[in-house]
Amino acid sequence: MHREMTVKNHRIPSIWYKQTSNLSAGRTLNPSMIVMHYTTGWNGEGSRDWLMGAAGGTSNKGSSAHVVIDRDGTAWQIAPFDRVAWHAGPSRYGDLQSLNDHAIGIEFVNSGPLSPDGNDQWIDPYGHRRSKDELDAAGGFIQASHPRVGGLVYAWPNYTKAQLDTGHAILKALTDQYPISAIVSHEEIDTRGWKTDPGPAFPMDSFRTLLGDRNPAPRVKSVTASRLNIRKGPGIDYARIDPPGALERNTTVKILSADDDWRLVEVSDGPLNGVRGWVHGAYLG
Ligand SMILES: [Zn+2]
Q1: What reaction(s) does this enzyme catalyze (predicted)?
Q2: Interval between CA 238 and ligand 1 midpoint (Å)
Q3: Alpha-carbon gap, residue 117 to 119, rounded angstroms
């Protein structure tokens, strides 16, 4: 299903609207970026109400977003696009810091990674056990390792087609309306090295194409050093990803973002295939 959406007075009139209580007072947002998130949950209305704080009948006073998109494609706008919402936390992209002041935040309902229990079942972030059949019924999942989560291979629930279709219609409206120069994951801008959303099951590239020449496709490079340390953040103060903490010469990587001399990469082959981490850009060619 393709739905045309437009922005009027910093709102998308065709979707549900109610304003969150969690917005910076008296601050105008002139959006130049969009940050993609997952909610870390399965219950869309619950996440929406939480991100609305008091206006949603919840006690949350610390986070919000602009739009929440449920598994069935329903979208809820909870902040106008010219107000500063609280979704990016400590963050940086190029020369920009504190991206809440620059970015629209879009939340997709998704639990995030589930850990294997060693018994063919998976444990979600709330400690609930989920069988493969349950996860398949909810849209399936991919399996991928991720150094920010731990040393195991995790289940990452897929995003539904309805959800992604709505997301595309909203992002199209936003990129038509505002001078958006980058669409980024929360993971790649988070300066604490904690965040993993929206994760490896999310098709970031399909959204980045909305920017055309404004945001070229990720570049593919290969490692020129005999061994190149791969770290959890952009600098030598960050721990190496273990094991084995280094990429061998000629390993292929996809560059996702940059911070000074450092590059966030996704490894495309070899023992760390699929892993994301930071490497020094001088050793990529
Ligand atoms: Zn996030």
Answers
A1: Hydrolyzes the link between N-acetylmuramoyl residues and L-amino acid residues in certain cell-wall glycopeptides
A2: 21
A3: 5
